[in-house]
Amino acid sequence: MARNIVSAAVVAFLIPLTSSFAQQAPPARELGIKYMRDSQEYGTLARQVYRLASEAAVRGAEEGLRGLWAVVLDVDETALDNSAYQLERAAYGQPYDSASWAAWVERREAGAVPGVADFIALVRKAGGRVAWISNRDARLTEPTRANLEAVGLWAASDRLCLQKSSQHTKADRRREVITGAGECAWSSSPMRVVAFVGDQMGDFPGAVEQIPQTGSDAAFGRVCFLLPNSMYGAWTTSVTRVPGVR
Ligand SMILES: [Mg+2]
Questions:
Q1: How far from each other are the two terminal CA atoms of the chain, in whole angstroms?
Q2: What is the distance in A from the centroid of ligand 1 to the CA of 4?
């Protein structure tokens, strides 16, 4: 009887401890990773964004008689899911660094972001081209291409424009795609871009680029399609909200 009383007392003492442990949220970094890896909300949001982008591609195809058209996508956390890399770094208590990042890219193990495969398949079927514009180091072009291929996102007609130098900005590369002149262009083939997809504001044309129907908050959901990224980005250290727009 005495033993039972002691056991009951121990259990009564432990229950609040274990339940408070179970309810304790992970630290912010892990929480941001968990949201993208585990939450139903993230997957649903990503597919929602790509469904909207697909409607833009369908409109682009319907207007196809006006010339060639393309979609422009960022790579990381837009097409490829690098949350496994983030999780590994967090497990070891290590920050991002370029050496571990390059090693991760060489592994070619990133999965596809939810919704992107269906979107790309629709674009190709509708006759559109695909340009991947990323600030991954240009020396990582081949493993990046191979990873895109491994998850079914790559076609030989695609353009993959990584960063050769900090001077060769994403804005420069967007202009090359649109004008048909430059390394990222389909040679001598100016492109009408019907959708820009990314997870950071820098993935989208600014007003200064003077690309029709872009450069403002109103472009989002029509020509520009923004995916959530709770793991990293300029938002962690600066305010990126458009003044006057919440
Ligand atoms: Mg990205």
A1: 64
A2: 58
How far, in Å, from the CA of 137 to the mean position of ligand 1? 13
Q: What span, in angstroms and rounded, lies between the C-alpha atoms of 184 and 91? A: 37
State how far the Cα of 110 lies from the Cα of 83, in Å rounded to an integer. 8
CATH architecture of 26-236: 3-Layer(aba) Sandwich (3.40)
> Residue 200 Cα, ligand 1 centroid: separation in angstroms?
6
Ligand 1 midpoint to CA 129 (Å): 20
CA of 82 to the centre of ligand 1 (A): 10
Cα distance between residue 80 and residue 106, in whole Å: 13
Q: Domain ranges in the chain?
A: 26-236
Do 40 and 114 meet the contact criterion of CB atoms below 8 Å apart?
Answer: no
Backbone angles phi, psi at 46, to 5 degrees: -65, -45
pTM of the model: 0.88
> Across the 246 residues of the chain, what is the mean pLDDT of every consecutive 10-residue run?
43 43 75 97 98 94 79 98 97 95 98 98 95 98 98 98 96 97 94 96 96 94 98 89 73
Distance, CA 81 to ligand 1 centroid (Å)? Answer: 9
Report the alpha-carbon distance of residue 233 to residue 179 in Å, rounded. 29
